[in-house]
Amino acid sequence: MLHKYFIFILLTVLKITNTQKLPWAYTLYPYGVDFNDTLTARDQDLGSGLIHLPFNISFMGHKYDQIWVQHAGFLSFQPETRFTLNDKWPHPNYPHIDDPIFIAPFYCRIELANDRYLTGEPELDFYRDDDYGRVLWRFVIRPENYIMPPPNSLLHGEEKFRKQAVDMLNMAQDQIRDSVSGAEHFVADYAFVATWGNVTFLGISEQDLRKRPRNSYQVVLVTDKYANLTFAIFNYEKIQWAASTEYGGDSKTGLSTTNAAKIGFNRGNGTEFYQVLPYNDNPKEVIKLHLNSNVDLKGRYIFRIDEWIQPAGCKNDYSNGSLSIWPWFGNMLGGQEVNITGPCFGYHPYKDSDQFIPFEKTYCRWGDDQDSPKTMAEVITILRARCVMPKIFFNGRINLWVSIDGGRTYFWKHEFTIVDPIRSTSKVELIDEEEWFKPLPKSKKLAIKWNRDDLGWSRNETIDVQLFGYYEDDDGPHWDFLQILGDKLVNNGYYEFLVEENWAVDQNRARRYRMGAVAVSLLSGGTEEPKRIWSPLQPLGWWRHNEMEIYWDRQKILLGNSRGSNWMEDQCRWWHEYQRWDRFWMYDLERCPCTIHFAVSDIGRWAPDPECNMDRNFGDTSNCEFHKGAVHCVVNIRPSKSGGGSRCCYNYQGNLMYTNDTRYGSTSDRYHMFGIPPYNTYGRVPALSHYLNDKVPYYLCCEWSDLCDSYLYVRETSDCKGYLYPKTAAIYGDPHVMTFDGKDYTFNARGEFRLLISTRHNFILQGRFERPPNASFALETSGGQINATRMTAIVAREDFSDTIEVRARIFPNQTWRFKCDLFINGRQWYINYTEEKLQFFRNVSIFSPYNDLHMSNLTIMFNTSGAGVQVSCSHGMIHLKFSAPPVMFYETEGLLGYWNNDTSDEFRTPEGVIWSIDSSPITINKEFGMKWRVEQPADSLFTYSGSLAFNKFHDQKENIHTWMQFVPWYTWDEPNFKFPTKLPFSESEMFSVCDGDEQCLYDTKAMGSLEIGESTKHAHRYYKFLHEMQKPVNSCGIYPLKGGIRKTSTGNYLAGSRMTVSCEKSYTFYGYPEYICHWNGTWLPANNVPLHKFNDWPRCEHINIEGIIWSSVGVSSLLVLLFILALGYRIIFQRKKKQGSFKADEKKLSQTIESADEETAQEDGLYFPPNNNNQTEDTDSDSENYYLNRSPGYLQSQRNISDPVEV
Question: What fold, for 1044-1104?
Answer without folding.
Answer: Complement Module; domain 1 (2.10.70)
